[in-house]
Amino acid sequence: xxxxxxxxxxxxxxxIVMGILIVTGIILNNLDLSSRAxxxxxxxxxxxxxxxNVQTKVKMTRLEKKIERVKKEQDKVIHNTKDN
Length: 84
Fold this sequence. Notes:
By secondary structure, this protein is mainly alpha-helical. It is built from two helices and no strands. The chain has one domain. The longest helix is centred in the C-terminal third of the chain and has 51 residues, at 33-83. It is rod-shaped and about 75 Å long.
């Protein structure tokens, strides 16, 4: 796996965990409930967004590799028919 993808997955997991910890009051328990909920939901939402973004990038990378492989196979077939 690409290092950038691993870093993005790690960042998204950290953001999701931070969001959960803030909402539950484990972190920033000195803030009032509404502020904690807002900050927690922002962190959680950002983490989910990053996770979905990483998933999309991985799918696109796989698709691009598959398309490239198909193009190479097409070129092989075309060149073999021209030679015969």
